[in-house]
């Protein structure tokens, strides 16, 4: 049996598109909503007002994440399309030059020039645009921009993340709202950091520490502002 049939590799790089959007959405959902809740609650407002602010933050944040991701990733997709269009035109006008250009890419990676030209010849005959997109431009099926996927993933995960501190508002006693939301949100962030790191094959401890630290900073800042303005008003 061929060694290729005995050894099956599992890579995580194919998750990079949706994983980035998912982690960003959930992380932003927890931090922004929890910070909003803590800031409003620190101003000594009524629980009903805190709840309204949290729900409004969830809806507005999810829509903003979807729109932001769609616009951002669409810009990337437009750039990729423009580069592919330019490459397609160059291939139609001067394919010998493009073939040599592709060969030089392989030479820079350590392939002997004669072999590099043979590889370039075969790949050009098979799929010239695909070879140039992948090896010259760095565009592949794994990394290509998907605006709709990014927008939907970000919106859904933001809403999921925001729902966690929002749920704490519903069950926490009024006098202990701030500490309960803070502790619970930091725990949610730690869990999210561990899951995101695990899915990406990274160190879970590092992922937990990173996201928890910045979440604590954000909530401390908004709590301070809420306390300041609540006292002034």
What would you say this structure looks like, in words?
There is one protein chain. Helix 2 (16-42) packs antiparallel against helix 3, helix 2 packs antiparallel against helix 7 (177-200) and helix 3 runs antiparallel to helix 6. It is elongated and about 75 Å long. The chain has helices at 3-6, 16-42, 47-93, 95-108, 113-135, 147-171, 177-200, 204-232. By secondary structure, the protein is mostly helical. The chain is 83% helix and 0% strand. The longest helix is centred in the first third of the chain and has 47 residues, at 47-93. It has one domain (13-232). Residues 9-14 have low confidence and may be disordered.
In short:
The protein is mostly helical and 233 residues long. It contains 8 helices and no strands.
Write the layout of secondary structure elements.
Blueprint: H1 3-6, H2 16-42, H3 47-93, H4 95-108, H5 113-135, H6 147-171, H7 177-200, H8 204-232
Helix pairs in contact: 2-3, 2-6, 2-7, 2-8, 3-4, 3-5, 3-6, 4-5, 6-7, 7-8
Descriptive tags:
mainly alpha
- State the domain count: 1
Q: Low-confidence parts, pLDDT < 50 over ≥5 residues?
A: 9-14
**Count of extended strands:** 0
The main β sheet shows up as: none
Distance between the termini: 78 Å
The pLDDT mean sits at 80
Global structural class: mainly alpha
Beta percentage is under 5%
């Amino acid at each position: 049996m061929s060694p290729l049939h005995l050894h099956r590799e599992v890579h995580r790089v194919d998750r990079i598109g949706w994983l980035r959007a998912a982690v960003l959405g959930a992380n932003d959902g927890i931090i922004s909503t929890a910070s909003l809740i803590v800031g409003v609650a620190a101003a000594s407002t009524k629980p009903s007002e805190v709840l309204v602010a949290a729900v409004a933050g969830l809806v507005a944040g999810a829509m903003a994440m979807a729109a932001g991701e769609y616009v951002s990733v669409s810009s990337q997709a437009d750039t990729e399309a423009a580069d592919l269009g330019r490459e397609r035109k160059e291939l139609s006008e001067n394919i010998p030059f493009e073939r040599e250009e592709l060969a030089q890419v392989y030479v820079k990676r350590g392939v002997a020039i004669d072999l590099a030209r043979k590889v370039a010849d075969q790949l050009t005959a098979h799929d010239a645009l695909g070879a140039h997109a992948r090896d010259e431009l760095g565009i592949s099926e794994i990394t290509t921009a998907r605006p709709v996927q990014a927008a939907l993933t970000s919106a859904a995960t933001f809403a999921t993340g925001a729902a966690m501190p929002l749920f704490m508002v519903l069950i926490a006693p009024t006098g202990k709202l701030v500490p309960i939301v803070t502790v619970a949100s930091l725990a949610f962030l730690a869990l999210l950091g561990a899951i995101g790191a695990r899915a990406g094959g990274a160190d879970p401890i590092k992922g937990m520490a990173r996201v928890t630290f910045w979440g604590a900073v954000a909530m401390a800042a908004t709590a301070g502002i809420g306390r300041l303005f609540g006292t002034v008003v």
